[in-house]
Amino acid sequence: MSETLPVIPHSRPTVGDEEARAVAAVIGSGQLAQGPAVQAFEAAAAGLAGRRDGVAVASGTAALELALLALGVGPGDEVILPSYVCTAPWLAVTRVGATPRLADIEPATYSLDPGSARKALSSRSRALIVPHLFGLPADLTALTALGLPVIEDCAQTLGASENGRVVGSVGRATVCSFYATKLLCTGEGGMLLANDAALLSRARALRDYDAVPALEPAAYNRKMTDLQAAMGVSQISRFKDFLARRAAIAAAYTAALQPLGLSPPVVPSGRSHVYYRYVTRLARPRPSLDEVLAGLEKEGVQARRPVFRPLHHYLALSGFPASDEAQAQALSLPIYPGLTDEQVRRVTAALAKVLG
Ligand SMILES: *Cc1c(COP(=O)(O)O)cnc(C)c1O
Q1: Which residue has the least CA distance to atom 6 on ligand 1?
Q2: Is any ligand 1 atom within 6 A of the Cβ of residue 224?
Q3: Which string of b and e fits 156-187 if b means at least 16 CB within 10 Å?
Q4: Does ligand 1 lie within 6 Å of residue 135's CB atom?
Q5: pLDDT digits (tens, 9 = 90+) for 172-218
Q6: Is the pTM of this model over 0.90?
Q7: Using a 6 Å cutoff on CB, does residue 144 contact ligand 1?
């Protein structure tokens, strides 16, 4: 039976007629590269993250690199980041010539552990990259108390709050990704957001090789097109509906998973979750995560490890027990606004079968 049903993908962009119309209008305008739509998208995204303004760029990775450059981070400096994240933050730190210093995560929330980050501090520490993973804000209160400039990595979390503050509004700078399967999608794209006018103008000067009349070696072409930005504006206008649908799916998963002995994502008091990912945990050793992933695939359900590989595994480092445990146990289920109630039932039925 299940072989005949279409596969439920792990991720899927939520785009349709509105985005098609927005992109068509840009094509009709004759202004395709960075122009008025980029400006409108920057203003709308800044509103969402409680920031003064934004600098739209080609990707979240480019936004991370720009944030570090605009903060003056370079050779001889160290930047603290968690091991349990994709490779983009590590690559951005390395590209600006600084040294990444890895820290561990909190086991329950998957967020950068303030205690582990404190242990990674040195006299050369210049910044902290704080990813808000899976839709849950990190412990910004404890992390900002470490005293270093914080770059909030909001690639997976927008619209959530921590102690009454909207995520993205707290650190010195914030970066977003609008990759195809993120909360807001422009195909590819990213943004640096901040309140500091000087930091924003440094970033603008570095995103475009001809932005200022100077030969600046750190400048480059990192620009976003108006085609992408028009999609982004349309996505932001529907963001509240997207989050409401994600919350409803998460509630359905939580109700269905508890009888299977699977715990829902932890949401500490003072924080809210926007469920970019729905990540549960396999607490028993059998079946293993690989067995569960393969079993679900056979049932036509694509589930994933939420992080492909922790950074310390690439670097053959040890001493990151919470990241190791997350990599062995964390299971990410399909969740996106277009997922139907029927598909949610198929996912939970497949899980019940695979866990036996
Ligand atoms: C996706 C992502 C990035 C990189 O964004 P791109 O737009 O793919 O370059 C950085 N950090 C986190 C936490 C991400 O999820």
Answers
A1: 60
A2: no
A3: bbbbbbbeeebbbbbbbbbbbbbbeebbbbbb
A4: no
A5: 999 999 999 999 999 999 999 999 999 999 999 999 999 999 999 99
A6: yes
A7: no
